[in-house]
Amino acid sequence: MEKEKFNIGKTFLIGFGFFGVMIAWSVYNSFVPLFLANKFNLNAAMIGFFMTLDNIAALFIQPAIGSISDRTRTKIGRRLPFMLTGAPIAAIAFFFAPLVAIPVLKVPEPARLPLFVACTITFMLSMAIWRTPVVALMPDVTPSKHRSVANGVINFMGGIGSITAFLVGGKLYKLNPAYPFWMAAVLLLVGVMLVFAFVREPKIYEENPNIERPNLWKSLAQIFKEKQHDAIRIFLAIFFWFVAMNAIETFMTLFANKSLGMPEADSVSILTLNSVAFVLMALPAGFIGAKIGRKRTISIGLVVMMIVMLSIFFFPKTTLTRQIFTLPILGPVPVVGIMLIVAGLGWALININSLPVVVDLTDAVHIGTYTGLYYLFSTLAAIAGPNINGWIVKLTGENYASIFIIGPIFMALALASILTMKSGEAKTQTTEQ
User: Fold this and answer.
1) DSSP secondary structure of 266-323
2) Residues 6+ apart with CB under 8 A from 273
3) Please, which residues have CB within 8 angstroms of residue 341's CB and are 6 or more apart in sequence?
4) 319 lies in which domain range?
């Protein structure tokens, strides 16, 4: 029997789950640093540490959940139960977080920050429960040769979520700082319910009940024990480029606000340009990866990112804030906005093709486990990046531009790892008798 063909409609539906993930995290990463700096008066080092709490939680949860979901057997599948558990809790926590920070609720001043931390930690933990399973759904239903394109579709939907967070969220923030959080909570639930209503998981994992059950840490140990060099290189590359990207995601709004003098809402809205570029490039990046090779495509993206970061660092403030043209809805576009557009294009080339490289290093039974390993290394980077850059910003006298000199170093390390890989391209599709 021929293996299941690529179903782009089903892939778009799965993308609604990632849409929910990205709109929530984009609101979190954009507005929480502003709350911490301007409403709780924390310095850059403290903000950097706070913004890694979600990644510390994810470090212990997301990779293990990927492996556990591989072993889960329910009537609705092995991934959906985690989505239906984590998403509602995350939405409730996200609803209450801004009410404490603004504050709207009559909370004593000493209790505001602890309650805000409690809300955000609840959000972090519940999001960690279901992010790996929703991402693992894509390779579950997609043949190897189509996974770059399918990941482009998934990230296209995630990019729409980010655009909604930055563009609509920025405008809502001007009306009430709580509105972006409430919007994200509602749309997160809508996305998950659409996946639950229309996506049915494949049952291929039940064909061989005697096969050894996946184990995350055993798989990781096996990679190093057997010296699976390509797996080691791709996971190191993922760590390196996410160290750079997570630092920028954490501090970009503060860079725009503190270093470039942009108003808070505008410092978030400008990130819309990056997300729009990512969305526009998401599908082409998948096709480019399938055409010229995933590793070559990722390498091009890394070079683009290095050039953009160095340009932002070396260009003076007057140049970066100079308006070039105006776009409908998005408004005036300064030079730094152009750079963010180029960065979005480069990041799409990297991000769209990286997960397919990872999951094609294993078999169908272990897809959730390897997706978990992907998140293990990206989460380690998300812990290291904001902390490293937070301290650098503090040591340089709150110079937020310094994040753009550290990023290219880690991108170069990632490039070196990718260029030495020998495998990772799409597998030849076979048929079963």
Assistant:
1) HHHHTHHHHHHHHHHHHHHHHHHHHHH-HHHHHHHHHHHHHHHHHHHHHS-HHHHT-E
2) 330, 333, 337, 338, 340, 341, 344
3) 273, 274, 276, 277
4) 8-201+215-419
Tokens, residue 340:
């963010």
**CA dist list (Å): 409 to 26, 52, 389:** 25, 21, 12
C-beta separation of 335 from 322 below 8 A: yes
Confirm whether 21 is domain-assigned.
Answer: yes
- Predicted local distance difference test score (pLDDT) of residue 135: 78
Return the DSSP state at 167: I
What are 326's strand-pairing partners? 332
Q: What is the longest distance spanned by two Cα atoms in the chain?
A: 69
Domain assignment present for residue 260? The answer is yes
Structure tokens at 178: 């709580």
Burial of 292 per CB tally in 10 Å (0-12, 13-18, 19+): exposed
Give me the pLDDT at residue 341, please.
93
Full DSSP string of 10-53: HHHHHHHHHHHHHHHHHHHHHHHHHHHHHTS---HHHHHHHTTH
Number of domains in the chain: 1
Q: What digits encode the pLDDT tens for the residues 62-82?
A: 777 877 887 888 888 888 889
Q: CA-to-CA distance for 181 and 23, rounded, in angstroms? A: 9
Q: What angle do CA 363, 364, 369 make, to 5 degrees?
A: 80
Q: What is the pLDDT of residue 148?
A: 77
The answer as to whether 20 is a domain residue is yes
Residue 432 lies in a domain: no
Q: Are 183 and 169 in contact (CB under 8 A)?
A: yes
- Supply the Cα-derived Rg of the chain in whole angstroms: 21
Of residues 400, 399, 396, 389, the one with CA closest to residue 45: 389
**CA dist., res. 230 & res. 91, Å (int):** 38
The enclosing domain of 81 has a CATH number of 1.20.1250.20
